[in-house]
Design brief:
By secondary structure, the chain is α/β, with parallel strands linked by helices. It has a single domain, classed as Rossmann fold (3-Layer(aba) Sandwich), CATH 3.40.50. Strands 4-3-2-5-6-7 form a six-stranded mixed beta sheet, with helices on both faces. It has a three-stranded antiparallel beta sheet with strand order 1-9-8. Strand 2, helix 2 and strand 3 form a beta-alpha-beta unit. Helix 1 crosses helix 2. The longest helix is centred in the N-terminal third of the chain and has 18 residues. The radius of gyration is 16 Å and the shape is globular. The two termini are 15 Å apart. The structure holds 1-O-pyrophosphono-5-O-phosphono-alpha-D-ribofuranose (PRP). 1-O-pyrophosphono-5-O-phosphono-alpha-D-ribofuranose binds next to strand 2, strand 5 and helix 3.
Amino acid sequence: MNQELEVLLSREKIALRVAELADDISRDYREQPPLLICVLKGAVIFMSDLMRLLKIPVEIDFMAVSSYGSATASSGVVRILKDLEQSIQGRDVLIVEDIVDTGLTLNYLRENLASRQPRSLKVVTLLDKPSRRRVSFNPDYCGFAIPDRFVVGYGLDFNEQYRYLPDICVLHNEANSG
Ligand code: PRP
């Protein structure tokens, strides 16, 4: 299949915005350093960069979730593949995501984690595609709102490929043209 990559957000632009997000989060959480929860796999690069720019002593944990269905369309059914290693009761929790698309994954995750009685629960996402929402969901922190294009790189994949790319790129191919 013919595939072509077009840079949407350069590594320089990403770095500047991640630093701004880190400043905002450091300020908002200066009295209450949060537990960062990285949602695998897409958010791994974003969280790695973000946490090193924070000026507060965070802890980290990981979750893996998966929606049933095809690689590019969320089905709305979310499975927990890997859960947290610790209780979050009474903790200030910040979920770290790479992208909010339909909102179904984060909607489910936020409800699931809220039921564990954290002291506070917020979401930071690097990317947001507001035009794709199927449920109402607003991230507390957002790097970039982007148009409805299929993007890869900086942790985001297509069939597990392209996560390593340092820039965020639009993937053009026969299956995702337009
Ligand atoms: C992506 C992303 C979110 C979800 C967003 O994960 O990391 O978890 O999709 O989509 P939604 O708003 O429509 O629910 P993906 O399932 O691609 O897994 P990955 O992070 O391992 O690539």
